[in-house]
Give the backbone structure.
Amino acid sequence: MFAFLSERELKWLDAATAEMKTVGPGEELVRPENVGNQVFVLQTGWAYRYKVLPDGRRQVLNFVLPGDFIGLRAHFFGIADHSIVTLTDATVSTLSAFDIASLFQDYPKLAAAITWSAAREEAMLAEHIVRLGRRNALERTAHLLLELLNRLRAVDVISGPSYAFPITQQLLADTLGLSVVHVNRTLRKLRMQGLAEIEGGRIFLRDISRLERIASYESSHIGSKRTPPDTEKQLAAIEDRRAVRKLARYRRR
Amino acid sequence: MFAFLSERELKWLDAATAEMKTVGPGEELVRPENVGNQVFVLQTGWAYRYKVLPDGRRQVLNFVLPGDFIGLRAHFFGIADHSIVTLTDATVSTLSAFDIASLFQDYPKLAAAITWSAAREEAMLAEHIVRLGRRNALERTAHLLLELLNRLRAVDVISGPSYAFPITQQLLADTLGLSVVHVNRTLRKLRMQGLAEIEGGRIFLRDISRLERIASYESSHIGSKRTPPDTEKQLAAIEDRRAVRKLARYRRR
DNA sequence: CGAAATATTGACAATGATCAACTCTTGTGG
DNA sequence: CCACAAGAGTTGATCATTGTCAATATTTCG
């Protein structure tokens, strides 16, 4: 993802995110009232972002996987409009508000990279909207499983067609906008048809191409670990033009 | 929204977005294959962003109202994963890729503002996810109507409890994840219960507080026209620290 | 004015929700 | 290390919301 960054930028990012902390499952990383003056990067483990309605209905917005930023939105709004909770043991590193400000001021390419990351997340939310709005239970489930597979692959957490699956059926229901009962039936259907199977906290995607057909899944940039060539060029241009400016300053002296 | 920007920044933004163009309804502003080397700001009119599945099912992601950025995501990805089409006559101004690069390099607060704007849009998508995942037809419809009302109010397009409504029932269906027929019935229900009514291309929200109760609507920062105080402080800090650096440079000379 | 898009309504079907009972797994304290 | 409670998963029966099909207004626009 950060392939286009310079030595100097990577060094700064490393330093800024050096301080790590470990948390157990079920830990609240962001709570709604909480002033968002910290931005986290999830290094290992899973988390999920969700909202609840006044009457208790819950909707999961998305899952947070290693490499994802957490709390960017809360940072910019000064308040979070949702909660983020860890689903497994996890390690997170922290960027302070000061770091973020510094980043926008002195590391334009990093700032652009952050914006890129936000854009990627937005793409995931958009995909989730289509899933909920225009796909049925089976399609939704298959689609989510594939998306998670590809995201995990992109960050090199896995390579094969299976992964550790810490999502309970209730949580899956709150993700897919279904009832627990119906999720259970949908999973059974996937199992019966030899498509996918959860066993011992791990999911096995048995027939990926059929899953993809059912879900009309298109592996997009969501599961990509780095910016596309064009973007890199533009970001490189930022650096170039900065160099030009510096040069101009020297000449003026 | 841009209350915290300096004279210089506003001037640059005005200059960069000076070139305007007018388009009719049904015009494609962003198409999926299209390389996203332009960012637009919608100045007047409505547009909507949507995706289509291979079999033709369509899902609207959100509506674009005056003041909203268009194509930011496409810009950063180099490719759009959705389409944007105008719904009414509209005027848009354009930021080139060069402008965006320049912005990140030389106008950190503007870059932060853009990121803020993206965060705001992400909040809208999140709200849409909850709408689709955990609300029924009546709640969904009421909720959307209220959100549009508040967004339009925030950009001073309207003041009262009614607004021009260019959304057909088919489009509404594709937004709310329902069938046209059911949207029609839901609108009838809203009408019958004296809650809201479409008449002559205009919607009248007859009983806002009851609508809010039905939709469990919480007017959030989605309908806010500017960053909250905390964010402003942080952005101001960017400026301050830049000043400090400049000072340091002077001293070194 | 007439075609095409949009809106409306009824009858019926289907997807998914709810309720309730039961099993299986997991984690904890004695 | 066992017992047991709590959470998670499973299944059947029934209900409700929403979708589909089809026919008929109504509006819009060239």
In short: Residues 116 and 156 of chain A are 20 Å apart (CA to CA).
